Amino acid sequence: MTSNELDDGNRMESTATSVREPRIPAIPRSRDPAALWRHSDFMKLWLAQTISVFGDQFTGLAIPLIAALMLQATPGQMGVLTAVERAPFLLIGLFAGVWVDRLPRRPILVAGDFGRAAVLLTIPLAALLGGLGMPHLYAVGVLVGVFTVFFDVAYQAFLPALVGRQQLVEGNSKLEATRSLANLAGPSVAGVVIQALSAPIAIILDALSFVISGGLISRIRGREPVAGGARAPVTAEVREGLRVVFGNRLLRSIAGCTGTSNFFGSALFALYILFMTRTLGLTPAKIGAIFSLGNVAGLLGALSAGRLAARFGVGRIIVGAAALDGLGLIPIALATRATAFPFLVLAGLLTSFANPVYNINQVSLRQAITPSRLQGRMNATMRFLVWGTMPLGGLAGGILGEALGLRPAIAVSVVGGLLAFLWVALSPVRALKAIPDPTE
User: What is the pTM of this model?
Assistant: First the structure.
């Protein structure tokens, strides 16, 4: 998940100076993990994220169901729908990182939330007026994606400044725990709401969650320091962000693993709702229940990610979680109408446990080894590489679904996802015992 006119990069801003705001309270930094419970600004961010990700469950299920059931989309159209939602990460992601490093990140987060709410509300409005179609869903996907690019890059760059790097694993664990809880409860509620009230109405609830989230983030008082000094051209700063990732074997291998997994995962998900509704004969309520039950293990993964890394080594856990995520796709390819419910729940249990374990540790590693002034560009470059593969994967899934049929296309996607872990298994990540000390 605005249109910013980017600097053309033809001149240096020689008048730029460091910003000093003595009246703004400093962001507290503590080494005590329990201090996050007393950290009012982190608690606002955490509550905002909790409300927003719960609302996301409604749109995440509603939009593909609108396409599949109301608009009778083809596999190719579902592939395009998946592609357009992530295309902005491929098209503008690198430039978004430059702006996130230049500007205060909190206003970007607020604008991202309010913007997505406004765009999503056009879906129920178009449905009410009888004008909803696939082109409208494509447009919503693109616009929500643009807002999400800036929000996501700013979000991951904001957390290290908010809590301090000593608490990154703890902060990421708390945020991932509530995401897992939302994934646990949200889909089943969303499935019932969609079946009872219709998918467009359910999207209103997600828009409301974005409004509440933006309001909470706007109340965060502490502000991260704004980078001072002369600014290089935009293209030069983009290249610097690329060098940070491609010049570091740890970051490079993580990008390869996550990008490969996302490519084949997007190819699979582009067809997943069609596969569940048309091949396996599942209703929206059953689909929601499958997602919810499958996400039961997500909370366990989020709560145990730090402990597992401390016991077995952060590198082994990153590799193991990536491998488990791939294995979790196998039951999807094997599911039939008779076995659909247990097989798809099993797939969800394996992947929902693996995902937070992988993400908490690899994101914390990335944040810890990257200087503060480059956090935005590092995150944007990573998002460009790992989410930029998603629109390509979505298109590939649609093409495979049209050419081979739903089940063979999903089988190809599963095989590709199984191999993603090799990027980190064959890299220096495997040997890491712990996340390196913070660097500047």
Answer: 0.69
Does residue 256 carry a pLDDT above 90?
yes
Q: Which residue has the tokens 């049209």?
A: 402
109-150 pLDDT tens trace:
899 899 999 999 999 999 888 888 999 999 998 999 888 888
Tokens 């509550």 belong to which residue? 47
**CB atoms near residue 212 (< 10 Å):** 16
Look at 25 and 39; give whichever has higher pLDDT.
Answer: 39
Q: How far apart are CA 46 and CA 54, in angstroms?
A: 12
Question: Among 188, 208, 159, 212, which residue's Cα sits nearest to residue 368?
Answer: 159
How many whole angstroms separate alpha carbon 169 and alpha carbon 184?
22
By the 8 A CB rule, do 248 and 404 touch?
Answer: no
Residues in CB range of 302: below 8 A, 6 or more apart: 173, 176, 177, 179, 180, 356, 357, 360
Q: What are phi and psi of 251, to 5 degrees?
A: -65, -40
Chain-centroid distance, C-alpha 223: 24
pLDDT in tens, 268-306: 988 998 999 999 999 888 888 898 888 888 888 888 988
Burial class (CB in 10 A: 0-12, 13-18, 19+), 402: middle
| The predicted structure's pLDDT at residue 202 | 84
Report residue 59 as tokens. 């749109």
> Given a cut of 50, is residue 11 above it in pLDDT?
no
3-state secondary structure of 11: coil
Distant-in-sequence, close-in-space partners of 402: CB < 8 Å, separation ≥ 6? 74, 75, 76
Residue 100 identity: V
d(CA 301, CA 292): 15
DSSP 13: B
The closest alpha carbon to 228, from 373, 332, 99, 404, belongs to: 373
Q: Which residues contact 2 (CB under 8 A, 6 or more apart)?
A: 111, 112, 115, 146, 147, 150
Cβ atoms of 377 and 238 within 8 Å: the answer is: yes
Mean per-residue pLDDT over the chain, rounded? 81
Helix, coil or strand: residue 231: strand
Report all structural domains of the chain as residue ranges with CATH numbers, in order of start: 35-220+234-431 (1.20.1250.20)
Helix, strand or coil for residue 57? helix
CA dist list (Å): 83 to 67, 90, 145, 304 = 14, 10, 10, 33
